Amino acid sequence: MKTITNPVLPGYHPDPSILRVGDDYYIAVSTFEWFPGVEIHHSKDLVNWELVGCPLTRSSQLNMIGNVNSGGIWAPCLSYYDHTFYLIYTDVKSRQGAFKDSHNYLVTAETIEGPWSEPIFMNSSGFDPSLFHDDDGKKWFLNMIWDHRKGTNSFAGVALQEYSPSEQKLVGTIKNIFKGTELGLTEAPHIYKKNGYYYLLTAEGGTWYTHAASVARSKTIDGPYEIDPTNPILTSDKSKEGQLQKAGHGSFVETQNGEWYIAHLCGRPVIDDKCILGRETAIQKCYWTDDDWIRVVDGPNPSLEVEAPNLPTFEAKKLPDYDDFNDTALFLYWNVLRRTFEEEWYSLTERPGYLRLYGEESMSSLHRQSMMMRRLEHFKVELETKVDFTPLKIFNRWQD
Fold first, then answer.
1. Which of 65, 146, 182, 312 has the highest local Cβ count within 10 Å?
2. How far is CA 364 from the centre of its chain?
3. CATH code, 3-307
4. Which of the residues 39, 187, 237, 280 is marked catalytic?
5. DSSP character for 379?
């Protein structure tokens, strides 16, 4: 029996949105204030994964200059319909006090590699948006509703509104279809349809150690929704000794063979409950009960080892760990803070075999730091680089 070893995407890969198109599986993850926006990983067996793209590569798609720390891209949703990939995402500009300035957008592409379109603005009523393609061809946009007013529940429910591809905008009535369970802090809504039911998967309980995934269902897309009596279907809250903690915020996928899995975020704490690698992506196997509820095979607590689907082994293409900067483009795993690769603040050609960075703003800046990073994926690593530092023009690199 082949097994899935969790996390399948180690290191900072939160809020997974999983999708199958034919024999191919994709996971899109949040990137927050790091550019380019959204990472997409590919597999054919759910076991082995490779990074294949970052859709938001232009400032016209994503401008995060000035975005607050931990703002930027929250919870993308990847879907596919009629030979087109759809990517929904939130750009969080600020989150001061009771306020969250979060704007939701849609981009599309004919292939997963792109090119991806210019963004279509959807709304600004909350975050964690998703798009559901119904059997009749209608498209439904969902997001959690953020209510900043004093004396209200900030996590006010799940908004549903129809999206018109021809008009490229949301149309019709907005309806709050679900206000959550007693766990509260309801977010990350996704809808699935099976056996005449619409299933609403949400994340609840907050993003700390009480995080969870919950399910509700309805015969009509706009509700009312019946809450699964055994919720949450996934959580680490009752298993403090487990190696995978903070389990929640997930999405379902059905294999070619009719098996179901949930991709979800998790964290692996080391000292003082700190998850130094960030929130990671794991996968659990699911099954359906006789009364049409979905369950995680090993119970609500996430497992490190999971039975993989019976699919041919996929040989994932891993990017090399060593980068000598002799290529004309950077490897996909490089990220920069807020700014884009379009600006002339770095060069791979001025000194071949070197990555040249031009110093600009300080480490406290929310605008233009000259910083290039890559994710840590392991607890124990050895890193080495060679640096030439010539601070001749410390105040202005264009001044003689």
1. 146
2. 26
3. 2.115.10.20
4. 187
5. S
Identify whether 118 is a catalytic site residue.
no
Q: Which fold has domain 319-400?
A: Jelly Rolls (2.60.120)
- The ranges assigned to domains in the chain are 3-307, 319-400
* pLDDT at position 395 over 80: no
pTM: 0.96
Length of the chain: 400
pLDDT in tens, 286-325: 999 999 999 999 999 999 999 999 999 999 999 999 999 9
Nearest to 226 by CA among 200, 188, 205, 195: 200
Question: How many angstroms separate the CA atoms of 355 and 385, rounded?
Answer: 11
Does 187 participate in catalysis according to the annotation?
Answer: yes
Dig out the tokens for 222 from the structure: 């706009």
In this structure, are residues 100 and 125 in contact, taking their beta carbons and an 8 Å threshold? Answer: no
Q: SS3 letters for 98-166?
A: CCCEEEEEEEEECCCCCCCCCCEEEECCCCCCEEEECCCCCEEEEEEEECCCCCCCCEEEEEEEEEECC
Q: Which amino acid is at 50?
A: E
